[in-house]
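ugh finaly. both done.
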Amino acid sequence: MSEFFGGFALKDDLNLFANLLDSFEITLNQYDVCGFGYGSKRALDYVLNCNSRINRLILLSPAFFNNKDSAFLDSQIEYFSKNKELYLKHFYENIGFDGLYRFNSDVSVRDLRAFFEFSFNEVDLFRICNRGIKIIVFLGGKDKIIDSTNAMEFFKNFGIVYFIKEANHLLRIEK
């Protein structure tokens, strides 16, 4: 059984990516670790701390905020603290949800802070590569959550990056 780490304020979100992974002929197996959005950070941590065999680390729209300053984080936390429900509504719209979904509204300021404060670093990714683990990253060119172009420039040094020009944060083609 592969390990999957879901995105911020979401539940059971792996099924959102089944068609995408199928279209790239990627079938998750017991030696894969996959993360979406904020779950990419947790997937990375899992791989770094795991002594078991891992073949691939698959990052779906990783929460890449390396280029954001503390003022950005402060504004997000302030907005969330003032009206959590409205913040989450806008968040879900910005990631590309167009219908009903099982959301996790049981998130806190602490979760949001962890979402934005994490920063990917080259040392960790080199460590993963040196263990022979293949890194595959999927990014959407029309992502409203992260700067996908900046993320592509960063991740291309560590593995395969699929940049889907017309896709949103959920890696779906926007109409």
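ok and the 2nd:
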Amino acid sequence: MSPQKKLLVVLSALLVAVLTLSACASIPTGGGVSKIQPTDRSDTQLNFNYAPPNPPAPGADQMAIINGFINAGTGFAENFQTARKFLAGPAATTWKSDQRTLVFQDQPNIVKGDSDNDFKIELKTQSSIDADGIRTPAHSGVPNTVQLTMTRVDGEWRISSIPDGIMIAQQNFQNIFKARSLYFYDPSFSYMVPDVRWFAASPSTVPTVMVKALISGPASYLKGAVASAFPDGIRLLRDTVPIVSSTATVDLTATVLQAASAQVRQQMRAQLQETLTRQLNTVTNIILRADQLTLDANDAPSSSLSLVHGAPVPNRLAGISKSELVYFDNGQQQQIAGIPSVARYQPKSPAESYAPGGPVAFLNGTSTEMYTVSPNQTEKLAVSGTALTPPSFSPSNWVWTAEGNQSGRIFASYPGITDGNQATTVTLTADWLKGRTVTALRVSRDGARVMVISSLNGQSQVQLSGILKQDNNSVSTPRELTAPLNLFAEGLAFTTGNWAGESKILVTAPGPGEVVAGVISVDAPDNKASNKFTALKELKGSTVGNDLSEVYAQNNSGDVFSYAVNGWQEQSQLKDLNDLAFAG
């Protein structure tokens, strides 16, 4: 079966709700590329209506006790009191339920160990959640083993030793856990950056869980790439965030909070506001307190404080027409003002900056050179390499590309800095990409992250990495990429991807036959790409605007299509405008 057919078979209909956002996606026959603004209403309810897990039965054998402990992994509502009844000895008092969650598929396999009292539980793990709510997908079929020891207490079998954490079946995980975005800042405090975590908490306790995680700092792959207004050492005065009349009261330790400037307290409040009110329908306002003393109302976020969730994508499309760089804007194809002819390079894969009148980048016909060009300037050679990926602009105008030769080399160039005809470029080496074939690299619209698609032995991998910079200036030079967060999609082979919002990525595998585009979501409860789109024959490339309501694709014949709820709609006015690309 071809990769494209596999993709069609395995894609699940997770994003049915997203279809409603694009139900009326307009065709740009008379104006620019049209947009539809998505709604953003988050569900705060989780399914905590499970019957309490069954406690140990008198006279139960070892297998029944082990299975009972596994089943008690759903006992969030009763704080795992039942699970502890299966434990004895030190485990009964030292075992911590929240240190790790193993999400498994199929039935656990319980195997005896070297002695009659030693056992191991073999799980086909789908993912794991650590104590901070960070989810790590597992490769399909990779087993995870939990070792345990049993003992008799008053004639009854109990577990005397087992690692911290719970085990939970995939179907229960989807009902109990929910993805929540904690919001941090990019280093320049210009954009909000999401940090997706997974929490199992009732509607009454989830604000506390989210606030504690927020003030503890970002996930490891974002450390150094994002900023928080909350300094190290700050904590909740009490282990609760009460909500009264839709107002969440966050009471923090006084010493650190009172020493902070009014601007920093504004930034703290804004982080809390974005984290709680965007996702919890029960919260509309934040009160910030220091040791029960309400802070001055003047600390409320000012109108000048940026709460932008990524650079907005303009209506225009960049493309190639007759070997020249062009825009499609306001219903018309037009030359880019001030850009010289680049036909001699046989340009492809153009990228445009977010700002009007900003620089443009492109690859030469053999994907061995990346050029940048600004209006009323000559083009500059930015990168020479092998199998370069299509360029991608950050909001601060750094343009990125990666080599596809398994070297792990990534390049970032700033068009405004030149040395003669050579653009100033930095080379980064990501050890985690060595030996892998990189086919796509895209900078997020908050400028703090990159999305990388690579493959090894026919298996594709999507990874997110934080961008570390020399300093906190918005145009600061990149210096390193963090160890990545892996987003594994089971059994899929895809080569291209585009950001489709702050936590979604459109992935495709261009080629002959019918090709289906899938969506990988950082907040999806499984490892699969989701099917939003019907198949398109001989898909050559695609581009995404602000979200999934703005998707364009082109086939090998040069026909261009936009996607609406009833399928792909041909855009005849865009025919033969090749390698279409929204800004970014």
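summary for the 2nd one i guess: The chain has four domains: 1-23+495-570, 62-175, 178-299, 325-488.
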